[in-house]
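Bit of a strange request maybe. I'm writing a small parser for structure token strings and I need a real example to test against, not something I typed by hand. Could someone generate the tokens for this chain?
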Amino acid sequence: MSFQNPVFIPGPTNMPEAVRLACYMPTIDHRAPIFGGILHPCLDGVRKVLKSDDAHIFIFPATGTGGWETALTNTLSAGDKVLVARNGMFSHRWIDMCQRHGLDVQIVEAPWGHGIPTDQYADILAADSTHQIKAVLATHNETATGVKSDIAAVRGAMDACDHPAMLFVDGVSSIGSMDFQFDGWGVDVAVTGSQKGFMLPAGLAIVGFSDKAMAAGESAALPRTFFDVRDMEKGYANNAFPYTPPVGLMNGLKLSLEMLLEEGMDNVIARHTRIANGVRLAVAAWGMELCAASPDLYSDTVSAIRTPEGFDATDIVTRADEVYGVAFGVGLGDVAGKVFRIGHLGSLTDVMMLSGLATAEMCMVDLGLDVKLGSGVAAAQEYYRSTPAKR
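Reply from user aminoacidic:
Good idea to test on real output. This should exercise your parser:
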């Protein structure tokens, strides 16, 4: 892979040079008031990205996986029942974490390429008359398959039977790139990380808690120390962390939030949709299909592209790396070898995306697939020309 080329993996994403330089800062005393000038703009900015008025924001030195653990350990106790669908690699990993923490996990199996089956959620929740289910888990954007689930519909299923469970949402590959409505969807815990929509290196777990989730922490008995939001909240009140904070990464986050909010979140969301539409038109021109089963499920941050039966899709990723110095994503889990993934999120433009599509075409032709050079690029070009980006 060449450092001169952009990456087209679903994360970590490309970093604007200004954001990279903001992370590369001199050492400061993180216990001095100057740190508050970094900390509080980060908390306020994340709250705006989540479209929330009063979510409690916490930033930990970790990744999205640490954010998952934060959600569970601060709100639940061993033996508590949670409801979750398994429809991809990342929902599977969250299930595994729940089981390791001794939770009673009710799993709804869904085919990879499909979204959360909200009708099954509705039936299960309606049947839970004694309210044994304490939390409903939902992966908003399944990064392994390029599938977006309808979180508003999940909340609707909960509200229809007046179920008091909390709603936890994995927004690792959606928040900061796709529409996310913490307040509007009645989310209790939202989880994301620094390395995707926020255009930073991996290293920050970013979570939002509702008042209800904070209250649940008073009786939650799962062990927590590093990820204790109560300790973090006390530290924030004094412009500090309960331990040494990742100052450089947070300074980068402060700038990336300024950039996102200056562009305007509606414009950020529209930009991702636009770029994704160009990718989808290119895929159709190649005579291929997405892993996502229907257009309403298409992700605006990652496309998992099915290759012909009998062809190892990983060869495209390997060829791109070894010959052209470009990174695409491999298939994971049940779709390993069946799809390759193009990430189209974070710091990305039409021109950058066209270079990725051109590289994918060269790889496929090199490997003998029946793809005409320039076909997908031309389809995307026509779309981008007809829908110019806002400047």
